[in-house]
Structures
1.
Amino acid sequence: MNGTATPYAKLDPLVRSIGGSIAASDKPSEPPPQDTNWLQQGVTLADLQHKPFDPETWVVEDILPEGACLLAAKYKSKKSWLALAIGLPIALGGKALGRLPVAQGRVLYLDLEGKQQRIKKRTRAILGVQNRPWPDNFHVYTTWPQGNEGMDRLEQWFR
């Protein structure tokens, strides 16, 4: 970040007002003991308060953090166009939407409602006619397994 307000700045007053209304005596009761390992993977807010972290890495400055992200909006709201317009500069290097600095890297583009033909047509519309080869670090899938198999495949792709 470059010293400007965070993308969450508009939420800060609301979050602070909610946090200030919780009395110290309103401590939640402790959960019953469980015999499972997943409980130990969590952290209390008391521990989190003083835990150091590296600064967040932004793929698209102040908009898209590094990692898996889900783009969701109502039907026919141009989500796939936006994903391509952001993903292509990430794969090629440059600026997203013509002005937002990006970190160059690999892109996984899951368009589970689209077809390769439509993605090719839209990519050509965004990149224009050029002799430059299209990026080989932009991976397109129009089918992907669901459930655990899909999560396993996603984990493999990230490796």
Note: The mean pLDDT is 83.
2.
Amino acid sequence: DADYLSAMAKKIFQSGFVWRVVEQKWPAFETVMWGFAPEKLSIASDEQIERMAQDKRIIRHFTKVKSVRENAYFVKHESKKHGGFGQFIAQWPEAEITQLWLYLKKHGARLGGNTGPYFLRNVGKDTFLLTGDVVRYLVSHDIVTKAPNSQRDLALVQKAFNQWREQSGLSLAAISRIISLSVGDNFLS
């Protein structure tokens, strides 16, 4: 569970920040945040969280540091229900991956947008990403009319990815990568 919480926290800190800097500081994050042990972090006091957020060895972003405690509670709760947080993630069907995104957003902290999907991909869960190129492709092929934010639009996108996966035998991640390389500046000829 600590590894999942660490991976989740890393994606949260990378969001809107230079990933390389986060990567370089990550060993210090592991130390400052008690090895990301959910049972410890979920009961950290406000004062302990404030001290962590002021530690110069890490990126001092109070809201993101505070989200680690909130997500520690989330990981601990789901782990107890499912026999491990990894079990919770593994049992979720890829054919409904956007529903897992919404679940992470609702029950976790700072896991909306692409942060949740990036976290899932990082821990080995098959998922697609709604990058700018993928969204442009979806709009240009009339699957959605704009960036999919509503549950209705996410269901349309999920349906399209499920169909492509069934037709191609490829993973959602592979399909997402292919799409991202077929439009915009990434187009490969």
Note: The mean pLDDT is 96.
